[in-house]
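In this supplementary section we document a worked example of the pipeline. Step one takes a protein sequence of length 195 as its only input; no multiple sequence alignment statistics are reported here. Step two produces a three-dimensional model, which step three serialises into structure tokens for compact storage. The input and output of this example are shown verbatim.
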Amino acid sequence: MTGDSPVDAIFAQAQELLRAVTFREDFSVREIPAPQGLAPYAIALAGDVRPAEEGESAYGTGRFVLLFDPSSPDVWEGPWRIVCFAQAPMEPEIGADPLLASVAWSWLRDALTSHEAQAHAVSGTATKTISTGFGSLAAEGDGAQIELRASWSPSGAVDGHVRAWAELVCMLAGLPPGSEQIEIFGARHMRSTAE
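The serialised model returned by step three reads:
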């Protein structure tokens, strides 16, 4: 929804704030169509860590959606809600670590704290997947992936929240803050069992 009402202006200001955020050079962010039916107002971003020329990333990817519903749904505990997704491939040994999901969740909490992004009504899941290729996929070997889905209600300006999401995606991809110029030696998504 867009228009000239005070409510439209509130959301337009949040959109401008999100669109003005700059990200590290190796994290490519673009605006994408927002999911329909979740809230009267929404804006969505997609981010990829060091994407190839065709746009795909072998390192990590994520989505960030800012929702605004002036009726303040009870479960949101306010008019704003953020929904985010982040995933990255892992070495199978790391994917098998029983603490991986907890660590990924703690990185989200740490990123929110480091960007002074206050959040309440936080919820989400961290899922780790280990896979083995067979038949024509046998040459791809074993692989693992971590995926984090989270939502929370933000307090204050939303720019710190989108920065925290970007930091989370990069952390999952193996790029901690301050690692912009550090080389990644190949994708971690699959390793041949013949090696």
